[in-house]
Amino acid sequence: MVTAGGVRLGRIAGIEVLMDWSLLFIFVLILVSLAGGVFPAWHPDWSPGLIWLTALGAAILFFVSVLLHELAHAVVGRRGGVTIRRITLFMFGGMAQMENEAPSWRAELMMALAGPFTSFALGILFAALASAIAGPIEINPEDPAAAFSALGPVPSLLAWLAQVNIVLAIFNLVPGFPLDGGRVLRAIMWGITGDFLAATRRASRAGQVIAWMLMAIGFLMVLGLHVPFFGTGPVSGLWLIFIGWFLNNAAVMSYRQLIVRDSLEGVPVSRLMQTRFTRVDPDMPVATLLDEHVMASGQRAFPVEQDGRLVGMVCLRDLNKRGRDAWGVTTVREIMTPVDRLTTVSPRDEAFDVLALLGQRDLNQLPVVDNGRLVGMIRREDILKWLSLHTTPGQPVPA
Fold first, then answer.
1. Which residue among 18, 20, 48, 214 is least crowded, i.e. fewest CB within 10 A of its CB?
2. Residue range(s) defining the domain that contains residue 365
3. How many CB atoms lie within 10 A of CB 88?
């Protein structure tokens, strides 16, 4: 099933699995890298068809490995009290989308370690399977490719998967939030200090430091300098800069989201919603709506009611559905969005969930409905105003 966020792959253990469109790019990149570089270097005698088929199998199994990594987080997290309903596979791996934070530092620690532990276990498993099929693999540090050149297609595929899963586990254990290692660091500091917010702030800053280090190393590689372990080359350097940039943004946004969640925790929509606003009749001419309401107020969206019940919403952009010369004979009903196509919220919903919904739908306001009757309007600016008044000075507030 195709959604706005990508492709729905199905459900595993009650958890929805989505594939983001960016995954296609990295999948093709891995496929081309294996078929055009790794496997031809290992096996120059292989036919192109065999190389591409082996590369395709390796790329698919790599993303299965990433999925298992994220499922480990989700399963252990759910046992520890974290609600996880969805996993999204995207360009840089995967992400288990949590609806709440771990209730204790121990639960956070176990959930964070579950992913890298799974990747390590997969790396060992793939290496063991390769050895079981091809016999013991002895690697000469001076010529590592020689050991792989004697392997068949399946052992070669397994040997590559073993390496990449172990590298994935090691990278994720780097102590920078929101990587798994950063979450381990946060759990340890949380356990020591008892302050979850401060622990997150420190782990997030560690993530930013590591991100800037990666970008600096990538910049040196672009300039042609050889960096131990990382190597050299403009392409690898640009990728490292991109990964560092992504990690820096993820660290900042993860901490910012926590600040927002903390400030809005337990705040119902009824506390923030607007109750004074203009409601219009569905049979009102559009020209009247414009002259008497749009121009006379700062309101940009107008609930449409009939017999005391919400029947739709009309916004400024809806005016473009008819030409200016037709506004005098066109009614609001003809251009409004009917109520059955509207996204509505309840006065008892949490403000944090509504803010997320506004972002997902790219909306500025939502009608608040209780038992079919409009009781208020909740706007993005209402929530941001609350955040500006209830966050500690110096803490970030989303724009």
1. 48
2. 269-390
3. 19
- Check residue 302 and give left, alpha or beta (phi > 0: left; psi -120 to 50: alpha): beta
- Catalytic pick from 70, 99, 334, 381? 70
Model-level pTM?
0.73
Packing angle between helix 351-361 and helix 234-264, nearest 10 degrees? 140
Structure-token match 């459900």, residue found: 11
Of 249, 265, 281, the residue that ends a domain is 265
Whether residue 180 is contained in a domain is answered as no
List the chain pLDDT tens, one digit each, 399 residues.
444 456 777 788 778 888 777 777 778 888 888 888 888 888 888 888 998 998 899 888 988 898 899 889 888 988 888 888 788 777 666 677 777 778 899 999 999 999 999 999 999 999 899 888 876 666 655 555 566 676 788 888 898 899 889 988 998 898 888 889 999 999 999 999 998 888 988 998 998 999 999 899 989 888 888 877 776 777 778 878 888 888 888 888 888 888 888 788 788 888 988 888 888 888 888 888 888 887 777 778 888 888 878 888 888 888 888 877 888 888 888 888 888 888 888 989 888 888 888 887 778 888 898 887 888 888 888 888 888 887 654 454 444
- Is 350 considered catalytic here? no
Token reading at 39: 């496997």
